[in-house]
Amino acid sequence: MARLVKKFGGTSVGDIDRIRSVARRVKKAFEEGHEVAVVLSAMSGTTNQLVGYAREAAALHDAREYDTIVAAGEQITIGLLSICLQEMGVPARSFLGWQVPIRTNDMHGAARIAEIEPENLEKCFKDGRVAVIAGFQGIGPDNRIATLGRGGSDTSAVAIAAAVKADRCDIYTDVDGVYTTDPRIVPKARKMDKITYEEMLEMASLGTKVLQTRSVALAMKHGVRTQVLSSFEDKPGTLVVGEDEIVEQEVVSGIAYSRGEAKITVVGLKDRPGTVSHVFAPLAKANINIDMIVQSAADDNRTDVTFTVPEDDMLRAVKALEERRDEVRFDHLLHDGSVAKISVVGVGMRSHAGVAQKMFDTLADKGINVQVISTSEIKVSVVIDDEYTELAVRALHTAYDLDVD
Ligand code: ADP
Ligand code: ASP
Ligand code: MG
Predict the structure, then answer these.
(1) Ligand 1 atom at minimum distance from 179 CA
(2) Which of 201, 203, 251, 292 is packed most tightly, with the most Cβ within 10 A?
(3) Predicted TM-score (pTM) of this structure
(4) Cβ of residue 73 lying under 6 Å from some atom of ligand 2
(5) Are 384 and 368 contacting, i.e. CB atoms less than 8 angstroms apart?
(6) What tens digit of pLDDT does each residue of 302-343 get?
């Protein structure tokens, strides 16, 4: 007998038939004698619709009310699954975040889980009932509903698995595992049996949305055995594991892309100490996350600084800089919301040279201009025109020998 946390994403609970098939899967595990906690997303499309309503009501709105609205989708699916389970003779009850309780910090809209009190869930297991828990939400220190950022149900699931010391956390989704790149844009993408926490973390933070970044960080920290698998087929998925469990390490194990990026260039700054500090201070104050940065100096004591931000923050960033024009002192600003970040990832590149060069050669061959570059021990990222995203990902996938035959 094992203790299992099973999370089902939006497509997997997209209508009543699918919720019934989730119930059958849960019933099977329950009848095999396992203790089961289920974490659910909202039906696919619901959260987008709720976010749309909030924006329509007011472009700039109270983040606590935003959370009240967007957390609603999960309330529906947990009630429906509990009913379907009960209909099948499986004792089950639903839990909203506050009923567990899942306690978070006060960062409404992108809250972090601070603590999960396991007692209520333990009681549920002891009573022989299935706990059906709303993903994506918790309760903040202000006693208000807080959500964990888009895709946050993955994080709810892993955090619950850590809190109840589950044997495994299964993340059921609409693909049958983690692939070398998004199988929806590269049909030749290869499914991995295993991927290291470190690579999965890097892939997720560089845009691979099959797992929310924070969920991977938590799984790594608490050693939660996490599996990504299909909710439609019965077959093993991809296990996220420690590096010691990987026998043969590829140099590059995956290609990630992120389309929601924007590039801003501050033109005509004075090239002297303090300049970059002045540029980024107003952005830090506005709580805008900066990703890649390049500074290019000209020979007349002038310099330009280019950086990337999430596309949703582009206009706020421009406004914050324009408002501080007198202190920052620049000629003008350029901004471009139609860029994408493409990254190659692999722990094997630590001990291999030439990985970045191959990337630049491949993009050059396709006539794709590289606008910004950043590297770390296990990844190389470039910013390109968004229009070439699919072409770049496919070409790189082939260049690093990742295509299935
Ligand atoms: P869920 O609603 O189940 O949480 P998501 O849409 O958040 O599902 O994540 C699954 C999607 O992630 C897949 O449909 C797939 O298009 C996308 N994806 C992107 N990159 C990858 C990858 N490398 N491997 C698998 N899926 C990926
Ligand atoms: N329903 C939320 C979203 O769409 C959380 C999730 O699906 O993980 O972002
Ligand atoms: Mg998701």
Answers:
(1) 24
(2) 203
(3) 0.93
(4) yes
(5) yes
(6) 999 999 999 989 999 999 999 999 999 999 999 999 999 999
Number of domains in the chain: 2
- Specify the ligand 2 atom closest to the Cα of 73: 1
**Ligand 1 atom closest to residue 9's alpha carbon, by position in its atom list:** 3
Q: Is the domain of 15 the same as that of 154?
A: yes
- Residue with CA nearest ligand 1 atom 10: 210
Range(s) of the domain holding residue 339? 255-399
Atom of ligand 2 nearest to the CA of 151: 8
The dihedral of CA 391, 259, 370, 192: what is its sign? negative
Kindly give the distance from the C-alpha atom of residue 242 to the centroid of ligand 2, in angstroms, as a whole number: 27
Which residues does the chain have with pLDDT short of 50? none
168 C-alpha to center of ligand 3: Å? Answer: 18
Q: At what angle do helices 72-87 and 46-57 cross, to 10 degrees?
A: 150
Residue 107 belongs to domain with CATH number: 3.40.1160.10
Q: How far apart are CA 238 and CA 168, in angstroms?
A: 13
The ligand that comes nearest to the alpha carbon of residue 148 is 2
Any idea what the CATH number is for the domain that residue 283 is in?
A: 3.30.2130.10
User: In this structure, which residue's CA is closest to atom 25 in ligand 1?
Assistant: 178
Give the model confidence (pLDDT) of 104-115 as tens digits.
Answer: 999 999 999 999
Q: Are 181 and 189 in contact (CB under 8 A)?
A: yes
**131 membership: H or E segment, kind and range:** strand 130-134
Q: Is residue 141 part of a domain?
A: yes
Show which of 132, 148, 174 is a domain's final residue.
174
Distance separating alpha carbons of residues 18 and 224, to the nearest angstrom: 27
In a domain, 248, yes or no: no
Question: How close is the Cα of 155 to the center of ligand 2, in Å?
Answer: 10
